[in-house]
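Exercise 7 asks you to align residues with tokens for two separate proteins.
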Amino acid sequence: MTLQSRTALDPRTPVLVGTGQTSERQGGVEPVDLMVRAARAAAADAGSTRLLELVDSVRVVGLLSWRYRDPGALVGARIGATVRHTGYSGNGGSTPQVLVNGAAEDIAAGRSDVVLIGGAESWRTRTKLRAQKLRPDWTVQDESVPAADILVTDVPMAAESERRIGLDRPSYVYPLFEQALRVSAGRSLEEHREVVGGLWSRFSKIAATNPNAWVQREYTAAEISTPSPDNRMISTPYTKLLNSNNMVDQSAVLLMCSVETATRLGIPQEKWVFPQSGTESHDTYAIAEREALDGSPAIRIAGARALDLAGIGLDEVAYVDVYSCFPSAVQVAAKELGLALDDPGRPLTVTGGLTFGGGPWNNYVSHSIATMATRLRESPGSYGLVTANSGYLTKHAMGVYRTEPPVGGFKRLDVQAEVDAQRTTRALVSYTGRASAESWTVVYGRDGSPERGFLAARTATGERTLAVSTDAEDLVTLAEVDIAGQQVSISEEGHFRFA
């Protein structure tokens, strides 16, 4: 940026000036202390130790590994800031980008000046201690501490059609999207396994060069997609290496402020990364109501509008990080956004994704934004696109970033009205009779044996219903045979058998 453009810039323009990421491999550090480490790293990255003292708002991504009533207050006290406002989020991987969108608006409006956004998980430590029936001696805030404002609510993940058959977690649902992608593409089971393994191999290649990745190793497609003692099958076609890796102790923090404050503190302009635009939306909360299990109108519309607000087309985006809890999430988003799965000039991740970069529950996107900022500083003037996802491909947030200020200032848009105008499918919570298999998966136990199968099926009149089976013979068929279009018989309780 030239001196002239700096002088003409609105002093309230929001800018990301510092990022910090930490990975605690020895374990034992509680989440707020991981955040403090990342915050100090972010201030060092900005080149201003005074920046932390001036933080007036701390906004924390929802934590799962420990309960705090107001983690932002603890972080603020430990970094020596006089914090006027703290906020917290519910569960959902889209929340970091939503918090950035909100902070950018608040800084531009003068409601905040220096905002700390971030989160942390000590899930690896907590899981190890639970196995030993131990509880960590971490900070406890009693009921006398007022709870922080909830800035982003939980994503709904319990539609009755799902709950009644036990379809209650991402590792069960995303394989249904994967099967739908395969059927749509006309691939055999083996052909699709190769595609998915190749996609994740390319993600691992990025992680291998990312100093902040949890797993810094490149895997072959066969290593990823083939079950082994260290890579057991979770739910077909997903092995362990095709699932998000939550067994991490990681933190990421973003420091945002006004251009006026960045200038006053002498933060070098080569550190400045400007949020250009942000959008938010959600697909139907009940997955059975979606028009297609391999699509997302919310991603398509939110992505297009984010680019429109930034005044660019997709071809002008040099770097992307597509939310990558499972391969199906990446494929659906890439299809809706118009991104190639295997473009060597524009990989779909800057971190390595949630399997290899690390999947600290709700906070992954704080890491992706931090890494994106680094890439953009290395390539001044380039655009970066970050996508974020909550639930079962449910809630979505998009962010466009650049080292140059946005023309006309940062722009944010909720595109839900446009998404709500899209077609949906009639879902039947309870159905008795024959139906046609649309998508399916088999869930495996830790011993490698199939435990149950989930099925999405269409009735003769086009409604969708969800069902479950524990029949041993049917589970073998589900795991090994392409049953797309095959007739099944569904009971009133939601159990299915092949007709």
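Second protein for Exercise 7:
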Amino acid sequence: MAIVSIDGISLEISIALVDELEVGDCVLVHVGYALAKIDPTEAKRTLELLQELGSAGERRS
């Protein structure tokens, strides 16, 4: 088990599916499980995209 921070929110997730993780690694998380270790640059781009999508949804409401 590990604690992850996603956009300022901390969650406890299972890391049983991913080998050789270290503190500070970026992972793809789905329904409480780390699925894969990902490159920090890719993680940053993904978070930025999700934030843009969230902002676009807010403008439509």
